[in-house]
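Appendix B, Record 12. Input sequence as logged:
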Amino acid sequence: MQITRDHGDTKGRYVLTQDGAEAELTYSILSPRKIIADHTGVPDALRGTGAGRALVERLVADARAEGVTIIALCPFVKAQAARHPEWQDVFD
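Logged structural output:
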């Protein structure tokens, strides 16, 4: 699995590519220290592979490294945050 990140002025996304299929996690930038995780999309070809979780793990790692807080608007990200109390330091 390879994850890349596109980060713009107001929006960004993570893209995971595996076997020609792409999953993505998108976010909106509220301020230099706060983002909203908007959407996670995983195609059928990648369901059950851990692709969605890998995207959230990368989001959490980057948020920690950059001192950013995440608002989980996306139901998948919100569910992952609830399953991982060790990530609560980056979730608002």
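Residues 51-66 form the longest helix (16 residues).
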